[in-house]
Automatic annotation (TrEMBL):
PANTHER family: ATP-DEPENDENT DNA HELICASE, PTHR10492. One of its GO terms (molecular function) is 5'-3' DNA helicase activity. It is an enzyme of class 5 (isomerase). One of its GO terms (biological process) is DNA recombination. It comes from Trichoplusia ni. Residues 399-444 form the DNA helicase Pif1-like 2B domain. This is ATP-dependent DNA helicase. The keyword DNA repair applies. Residues 100-309 form the DNA helicase Pif1-like DEAD-box helicase domain. Its cofactor is Mg(2+).
Length: 551
């Protein structure tokens, strides 16, 4: 054995000397080209033939880091530093002694005090102060050194809550929960997360209307198992919040019946729920703005499906006093992003505006059109795609994989400019970098994207985004795409924007909304009609509302 080892050492030394002599004989351009080729070969080898030890160690480190962040959010609190709303808790009686917010706050705090558990649903249309109330509830409980978990169905909603996480990530829910007969959360009894779930005083789940009923039922079974208690959620206190006028769970290639069957109101757990309601629009109440009051009424009419429908074509006419009607896509872009060449470096200006559309094909077209106006050159990042089962590689050539654009995935060829607005498509480092976080590109490096966070509690922080492998879940076969998990976000799909508040919002309705609540979600991102711009052919569009969901 020792002689063989010495021979190996000698062979390595000779190889190293040969490489050194070769590099000295190359020009700087030849060395740079050789380095780039070697990096590409290394990336492809790691992707196609991953080393088992490294492939397991890296996700393990990521999971430990995420869990540590979760534990800090569960146990470590400083109410005077972390919770800007906490100072208002003692002033609730003076602010609104009889309002809906006070009733909701008192009801939940009484349930926490009695340690009685229960399942509550907070029905809260936009502008009624839902985020304010749940922030106060979280702050009060945490200031008493108790555990309060903040979850949300979307990444955007999670960033608005202190210590917030997406429910799928925190509870380890299956990605394809809708196709599993009896799903459960992948949380073991002896894990740290299990300890958190046993000790928590409340679990708050925001934007719950987007969640599949099987997710809530899986969470119920897991809590009963972890707590050894067959009561609802193992006797824990659960507060769901949302608005059923908004979009329902997304199910690929589904019918309205499938969407209704998947929503929480179709769950066997819904009958045990206690409903709380916020009715007063606090934006209108505090500003005393007649235009905002009328806008709020019109929004509810859209959400409830009470706008008069033309029986001949099934369309509604957009009211003139409801928004500003744009006559073309170019005009819509100019209304939402005026003088973008002068303003795009202002991150506050960039964050507070976006254009929404029902389908990604129109979202992508608008994003490319806006990015083309920015100065500078386009940097192209091409993904490395491969099938999971190498036996099927002949059936799915690389060119075919490159042409695919599954939902929730970045494109094969990602075109970006410095200054562009982008949105994350995967959880990278929650809660700082999670699905739905918006950023502005600062530098475009060969193997990294340097960007500034635009939303959430870490707003203004500069971060590095790496390429990561992603596997779509809605394809008839499995393949991996190694790419930066981002897309342009000057424009976004309506479903992606749910939970986000904007200062200026444009809505592209050249193709009608196709699912429940999409028009309501798009129009309710702003609080006044002067900040809403809509492009619709002939000023008419389709408003899809499922009455069964609202009953």
């Amino acid at each position: 054995m020792p002689p063989a080892r010495r021979a190996n050492i000698g062979r390595r030394t000779r190889n190293a000397n040969d490489v050194a002599l070769l590099r000295r004989s190359q020009t700087a351009d030849e060395r740079a080209q050789a380095n780039a080729s070697q990096r590409e070969r290394n990336a492809r080898n790691r992707f196609v033939n991953p080393v088992p030890v490294l492939n397991l160690a890296r996700p393990s480190r990521i999971r430990r880091a995420v869990l540590a962040e979760m534990m800090r959010a569960a146990f470590n609190y400083n109410s005077q530093i972390d919770y800007s709303m906490y100072g208002y808790i003692g002033m609730m009686d003076a602010i609104c002694p009889h309002c809906d917010q006070k009733h909701v706050y008192d009801t939940i705090m009484q349930a926490v005090s009695n340690n009685a558990g229960g399942l509550y649903f907070l029905d809260a249309p936009g502008g009624t102060g839902k985020t304010f109330v749940i922030s106060l509830i979280l702050a009060t409980i945490r200031s008493d050194q108790k555990i309060a978990l903040a979850l949300a169905s979307s990444g955007i909603a999670a960033t608005l809550l202190e210590g917030g996480r997406t429910a799928h990530s925190a509870l380890k829910l299956p990605l394809n929960v809708q196709v599993i007969e009896t799903p459960t959360c992948n949380i073991s009894r002896n894990s740290a997360m299990a300890k958190v779930l046993r000790l928590t005083s409340i679990i708050l789940w925001d934007e719950c209307t987007m969640a599949n009923k099987k997710s809530l039922e899986a969470f119920n079974r897991t809590m009963q198992d972890l707590r050894g208690n067959q009561q609802l959620f193992g006797g824990a206190l659960i507060l769901l919040s949302g608005d059923f006028r908004q979009t329902l769970p997304v199910i690929p290639r589904s019918t309205p019946a499938d969407e209704i069957n998947a929503c929480l109101k179709s769950s066997v757990l819904w009958r045990y729920l206690q409903k709380l309601t916020l009715n007063i629009n606090m934006r209108v109440h505090l500003q005393n703005d007649p235009a905002a009051h009328e806008f709020s009424k019109q929004l509810l009419e859209i959400g409830d499906g009470k706008i008069q429908i033309d029986r001949t074509n099934g369309l509604i006419a957009v009211p003139n006093n409801f928004c500003t009607i744009a006559q073309s896509i170019d005009e819509l872009i100019e209304c939402v992003f005026p003088n973008i060449v002068q303003n795009y470096r202002n991150h506050d200006w960039l964050t507070e505006r976006a254009i929404l559309a029902p389908k990604n094909i129109h979202v992508n077209a608008i994003n490319f059109q806006i990015q083309a106006k920015l100065p500078g050159v386009v940097t192209k990042y091409k993904s490395i795609d491969s099938v999971m089962n190498q036996d099927e590689a002949m059936n799915y050539p690389i060119e075919f994989l490159n042409s695919l654009e599954p939902a929730g995935m970045p494109p094969h060829c990602l075109n970006l400019k410095v200054g562009s607005s982008i949105i994350l498509l995967r959880n990278i480092n929650p809660p700082k970098l999670c699905n739905g976080t918006r950023l502005a590109v600062k530098k475009l490096l060969p193997n990294l994207i340097e960007a500034t966070i635009l939303t959430g509690k870490s707003k203004g922080e500069v971060v590095l985004i790496p390429r990561i492998p992603m596997i779509p879940t809605d394809m008839p076969f499995e393949f991996k795409r190694l790419q930066y998990s981002v897309r342009l976000s000057f424009a976004m799909s309506i479903n992606k924007a749910q939970g986000q508040t904007l200062h200026v919002c444009g809505v592209n309705l050249e193709e009608h909304c196709f699912s429940h609540g999409q028009l309501y979600v798009a129009c309710s991102r702003v609080g006044t009609p002067s900040r809403l711009f809509i492009y619709a052919q002939n000023g008419k569009t389709k408003n899809i509302v499922y009455p069964n969901v609202l009953d």
